[in-house]
Amino acid sequence: MTNRRIRGRTHEWLGDLGEALSFPLTSDGRLAVAAATTLFTYVVLVLSTFPQFSIQVLTSEPADLFFAVATLTQETYASTGWLGLGLLTLYALLTGVAVANGVALVRRARRRSASTLAGIAPGLLAAGCASCGAGILGVLGFAGAMALLPFDGNLLRLAGIGLLVFVLGRTGDPRTCSIPRTAGS
To answer: Residue 18 falls within a domain, yes or no?
Structure first.
């Protein structure tokens, strides 16, 4: 592959990434879906950093959700610093964008056929699992495993962010996403 082709594909991928990241801003409904998903993802990730504390606080008084999130956000900052908190927030934001784009793909597929929807569903589930990343270890009872990870789990968060950015760059704007037909079909 020549350097010119590589630069052309990279430029196209960056353009598609920009379109994917700006897609939720094209309507109030999409922005609401992205914001709600971002908030939900952030809350789940923060609560899953210390699952025993989260369970104790929320079972004793479910109205203390804000207290638990604020306390665990402070605890996340204390244990991983600004980098860890920034990665966690970026993770939640990218998940919100990915879900808003996925909802658009599902709506578009529903108009076409059930087989297209069946092709999109595993991708949505995979993106959802990737967005949990480091937090899912705590939920599954492997909170101690986070201490063994290099850089306090930030490397795992960074890998999940990289995966989400790659997928968003590959899909681009869901309104224009299509599979090119080959000459034989």
So the answer is: yes
Establish if 52 belongs to a structural domain: yes
Q: What pTM value is reported for the model?
A: 0.73
Name 176's Cβ contacts closer than 8 Å, sequence gap at least 6: 19
State the residue for tokens 């020549």: 2
In this prediction, residue 16 carries a pLDDT of 82
- Cα-Cα end-to-end distance for the chain: 26
Distance (Å, rounded) from C-alpha 132 to C-alpha 135?
5
181 SS3 class: coil
pLDDT band of residue 70 (cuts 50, 70, 90) is: very high
CA distance 93 to 158: 13
The total number of structural domains that make up the chain: 1
Residue tagged 């999109």 (tokens): 120
Cβ(98)–Cβ(72) under 8 Å?
no
Residues 6+ apart with CB under 8 A from 21: 97, 168
CB 33 within 8 A of CB 24: yes
- The answer to whether position 184 is within a domain reads no
Residue ranges making up the domain that contains 151: 9-171
